Inverse folding.
């Protein structure tokens, strides 16, 4: 099988960060890229976890507060404009 090259463009910051992680595990970026391609072929999918990050403590507290307001029968709004209008803004 003949080898071929792939060129990708990424910000230097991304490349440096990825290189640091790869080197931590004893790899270089080319080896990690080849492994990624092989995994794509083996699994017949793109092996990425595309999910939203977990909310931080402040966000979780805000969510709990909003749930409590809703459970207590607090007002609901159809839009941000309605909410601001109810506050006189």
């Amino acid at each position: 099988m003949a080898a071929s090259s792939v060129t990708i463009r990424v910000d230097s910051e991304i490349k440096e960060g990825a290189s640091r992680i790869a080197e931590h595990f004893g790899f270089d970026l080319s080896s990690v890229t080849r492994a990624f391609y092989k995994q794509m072929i083996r699994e017949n999918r793109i092996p990425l976890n595309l999910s939203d990050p977990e909310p931080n403590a402040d966000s979780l507290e805000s969510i709990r507060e909003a749930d409590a307001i809703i459970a207590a029968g607090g007002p609901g709004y159809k839009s941000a404009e309605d909410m601001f209008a109810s506050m006189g803004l």
User: Anything to note?
Assistant: The helical segments are 12-24, 29-43, 57-71, 80-86. The chain has a mean pLDDT of 92. Residues 79 and 85 are 10 Å apart (CA to CA).
